[in-house]
Amino acid sequence: MAMDFDDKSIDYINTYCRDTLARSLRCDKDSSKGRILVAERTFRCGDRLFEELPLHLVAESPKDPAFVQLKRLSKLRGFVHAPLWYWAALNSLSGADCTGCSVKLTPVDAEKQQRLLMLFHPEPQAPSEDCKAIVNEFWSGLGPAAKAALGLKLESLLAVWLLNCFEHSEEPVGFSTFFLPAFVSHDCRPNCTLLAWPWDVFDSEGGGFRKSGILRSKPFVDLIGVFEHRSMAQQALWRASGLRAAAA
Q: Does 117 share its domain with 155?
């Protein structure tokens, strides 16, 4: 029987867990929740399961000609979402995807894009009118088939950002996505806590992220707790916070 996309991604995620977490976690497929993370060993309440840097960061870029053009197009066409969402999708394209683009984008490598596309999103059947307009604007020289394929990928990446991102910065507004935390199952009675700490501050004058020097030099995610079906004690959160501060 051929593997579906989830099966292939589970194999990839488990290889990632093996290489980075010494097999302490594994990914499995739940009949009702889809892909989930499962503990492969016992964790005490308050233990740190892992920490991870963002998979990708994107922020508004008011001085970037491509972002300015996108904002203008968004206003003209009345896009459904704010320009930053489409900007995030555009800046998740690979170098090959950017071939023929009339503006300068910042492409990601193929593996980063592969990981982004593994995050939860409904598979689009066709690109939206918004994504079609963006492709027509920035890739006017492509043929119809190439435009359709690129529009479909852009639609997928847009959905990835809409459904899997954290707010990373406020001025300018920036989003971040994470890989492994995306597969932590949501539950009304959680047994672990996911904490996102954006310690990098966006330097609008310098045109990039600079280190804030607070606790840790880079943004990261902590997954803290025990994989049991009960809420984590508040004391464990305080204890874990103290451990993080002491380790900084």
A: yes
